[in-house]
Amino acid sequence: MLMLSQNERERYSRQIMLFGEEGQERLKNATIFIAGAGGLGSPISIYLAVAGVGRIILVDKDTVERTNLNRQILHYDRDIGRKKTASAQEKLREINPDVAVEVIDTTIDETNVRDLVGEADGIVDAMDNFPLRYLLNQVAFEKKIPLFHGAIRGFYGQATTILPGKTACLRCTFPNPPQKEVFPVVGVTPGFIGMVQATEVIKYLVGTGELLADRLLLWDGERSVVEEIALERNPSCEVCGGRTRHGGDAL
Amino acid sequence: MKVTLRFFARFGELLGKSRVVDAPENTSLSDLIRDAASQNSEGYGSIFDEHGAFRDFVILMRNGKRVPAAAADRTLLSEGDEVAVFPPVAGG
């Protein structure tokens, strides 16, 4: 268990007021896997870095394009053409040199996802498609670590926190993916949903507050309304249903 | 009977976000949504496929509880029910 340095006590003094040095040490000793360094991954990784999450693993396969810059705030105009991982690592290290930022420039797939996630304490879903989200959901279930889900389109977004064996999984809630498209988006929407996800990560690691467990938060930015919908496990879910019936740790 | 029907996200943009419907007795969940969606062909097409079945990603809620699309035809509504229809979003 790594202890806080004097610099860290000072850097995090205002949040140590919230959850104590013990809470801050939990953040310092945590590893969080963030899948995607785009619209959601940018604000999430920035805020987890400044909060002092000790080890951040950030995976992305893409190169920065001009069309990304309205929302992917880790990447600057000068980064166009660079790998998002390189751009992200540079910024996050400057933002907080006290946290370890590991970036992996690869396409997440069925063959590598388990190794990529490794021994992480949680997975943040900052993807832009459901097939990869389902893969993250599967791995979160296998490793029994939480999946912090978020997704956006236009002015709308959704978020929930999946605790394997305890809550509905992503497949229970969304058995079928929406149609693929080039989605419209203004940067504030992934900013908003990313902050919900990052807040969930911090609460989970520190062990405080109440998580978005079995609750789907829906954000309507057009009307500035937040609503929530209760979620339930699907007993016949192809991911989490069967094992539960065979004496898993559910309900 | 009066029931509240709410469309979320893209569905709401196309069909209006919320309305109170004065529906006849024995109206099913499917009937309610189909009637409301019929007012706008793009809105209808966003929820129903070419055979008139719910698109498989559409999520239906009645009084905060999920109703599978396969059960929507036989789910009869009651006075005061609140129905929500929404599409998951997928961007990131």
Main β-sheet of chain B, in a few words? 5 strands, mixed
How many helices of chain A in DSSP terms? 9
SSE ordering of chain A: HHEHEHEHEHEEHHEEH
**What share of the residues of chain B does DSSP label as strand, in percent?**
25-35%
Secondary structure: number of strands of chain B: 5
Q: Looking across the biggest beta sheet of chain A, what order are the strands in?
A: 3-2-1-4-5-6-7-8
Mean pLDDT of chain B: 94
The strand line-up of the biggest sheet of chain B is 2-1-5-3-4
DSSP helix fraction of chain B: 25-40%
* Average pLDDT metric of chain A: 95
Q: How many DSSP H or I helices of chain B? A: 3
User: What is the terminal-to-terminal distance of chain B?
Assistant: 41 Å
Number of strands of chain A: 8
Instruction: Tell me the greatest interface.
Output: A-B, 38 and 21 residues
Order of helices and strands of chain B: EHEHHEEE
Anisotropy-based shape of chain B: globular
Distance between the termini of chain A: 32 Å
InterPro entries (chain B): Beta-grasp_dom_sf, Mopterin_synth/thiamin_S_b, Sulfur_Carrier/Prot_Modifier, ThiS/MoaD-like
Organism (chain B): Methanoculleus palmolei
Protein name (chain B): MoaD/ThiS family protein
